[in-house]
Design a protein that fits this description.
By secondary structure, the chain is of the alpha+beta class. The protein folds into two domains: about 1-35; about 35-255, DD-peptidase/beta-lactamase superfamily (Beta-lactamase, 3-Layer(aba) Sandwich), CATH 3.40.710. It has helices at about 5-35, 40-50, 80-90, 90-95, 100-110, 115-135, 155-165, 175-180, 240-255; strands at about 55-60, 65, 75, 150-155, 200-205, 215-225, 225-235. α3 packs across α6 and α5 packs across α6. The longest helix has about 30 residues, at about 5-35.
């Protein structure tokens, strides 16, 4: 077959065009990842139609979004994420490998929300340990209580804590902490866990008090590559626990709308449960 200059020119043009299209698509994906915004309006409208009271916040590296994000509520079991980090920061724990006794407290407390374990951890770290952690993070509203589940939190503070939660954990214990938060038992993976955007790693903790609907909360970190989004949804006075769980799911679904399509694929989706 005889190749002419015109043939080579056509091939070269097609290669150049393909490269330009690829670069444009990559640039658009990067721009989308950087410009995604939570659908606060849709989440607000949905929340206003629900019984009970709802506050929420979403935080990215760039800014904070929310509705009633500074309203304080009893923490219930979302406090267990703070208890986990405060325990791992204890002077007697932070510099040594974790022992079976440590794991025997932390795994039940976080993965299946055991209250007895949480009380033992709080007795070890004390309210002073929780306050020190809150100050380190920069929380403004956190107020501990004699009954740990009645400690006061707000959505803005909790998103600040979760956005880079591993930074507050000593390096040798980070994989363990994040592994626990990413492996909540299936029976407690409702709300935001039901609407996790594809390709995003999820680390979260829920709190539901007595299971009556009086409180139903979730606080979470979503990671995909270098992108991070933290979410806190706090509800009170729902007619039932089931109703509260549906409110969490509905608010989360609207806040996170479009997130899966507007971020690069992850190259390292998270942390495994490892010895530390």
């Amino acid at each position: 077959m005889k190749h002419t200059h015109a043939t080579y020119a056509t091939v070269a043009f097609r290669i150049l065009a393909a490269a330009l299209v690829g670069a444009a698509l990559a640039g658009a994906a990067t721009a989308d990842a950087a410009t995604w915004r939570p659908d606060v309006g849709a989440a607000r409208s949905y929340a206003e139609g629900r019984l009970g009271t709802v506050s929420f916040a979403v935080r990215t590296e760039e800014r904070l979004y929310g509705v009633a994000a500074r309203r304080t509520v009893p923490s219930a079991s979302v406090l267990k994420a703070m208890l986990l980090v405060a325990y791992l920061r204890e002077p007697a724990v932070r510099a040594r490998p974790l022992r079976e006794a440590d794991r025997g407290l932390l795994e039940p407390m976080v993965r299946w929300s055991d209250n007895v374990a949480a009380t033992r951890v709080r007795d070890i770290v004390g309210n002073d340990g929780l306050v020190r952690l809150a100050r380190r993070v920069g929380m403004r509203a956190f107020t501990p209580a004699a009954v740990w589940g009645l400690s006061l939190i707000d959505a803005a503070d909790q998103t600040l804590f979760f956005l880079h939660i591993e930074r507050s954990v000593p390096g040798r214990h980070r994989a363990t902490a994040m592994g626990l938060l990413s492996s909540i038992v299936p029976s407690q993976r409702w709300g935001i866990a039901r609407v996790r955007p594809p390709g995003w790693a999820l680390y979260f903790k829920g709190g539901w008090g007595s299971g009556s609907g009086a409180v139903d909360h979730q606080v979470a970190l979503l990671r995909r590559g270098k992108r991070r989004v933290s979410v806190a949804i706090l509800t009170t006075n729902s007619p039932s626990h089931g109703y509260g769980k549906e409110t969490l799911r509905g608010v989360a679904a609207r806040l996170l709308r479009g997130l899966d399509a507007r971020a690069r694929p992850d190259q390292s989706l998270g942390f495994a449960l490892t010895a530390s």
